[in-house]
Amino acid sequence: MAITQANDDRHLFRAYWDDGLVDLLFGGALLVTGIGWASDLGALAVVQAPLWVVLWAPLRKRFVEPRAGYVEFSMARRQRNTHALRWTVALGVGTLVLFALVALLIPRPVEGELPRRLVVGLPAMLVAIGVALAGVLMGAVRFGTYALGLALAAAFTVMLSLAPDIPLVAGGLAVTGWGATLFARFMRSSREYEERP
What we know:
Layout: H1 2-15, H2 21-38, H3 43-47, H4 49-68, H5 75-105, H6 113-119, H7 122-138, H8 141-159, H9 165-195
Helix pairs in contact: 2-4, 2-9, 5-7, 7-8, 8-9
């Protein structure tokens, strides 16, 4: 019985993120960061990223909960969520600091051709690491796909000596597009459910 409840809890927690809202917000943050970087705002473009996290709860309450309902997890799950959230915030702050340092470093000359080329791939790689960790914490496999895509984009950025904003903009567009697809599917499914006799 306990094993069944634990499996149900895990399944419910994974399904909790399936409406696409978190994807839309992450994609938007990534897109704005990339556009800001292309506009020579650099580290300042990174500052807006945490603001998207603040939007998640009110937007979920406004659009998702009236259709999917409010979920109250078990005490054990809430404790795990709190623990995971602390790690996520710590990793997010660390990534933000590294990201800002890279933004400050890129405009300056870096000694040697290889280090200079590697530096331009760092922003996308740092984001990829953060996204992979978030995916593990949420149990959302698609975030692993996002992380892999960003890591590959970082590798291409290095190989082709592209600007560091290109993988961020491309990744932002891809994630926002997929998030919009998931969100539209969620809204359509909830509408069809409401219309059933």
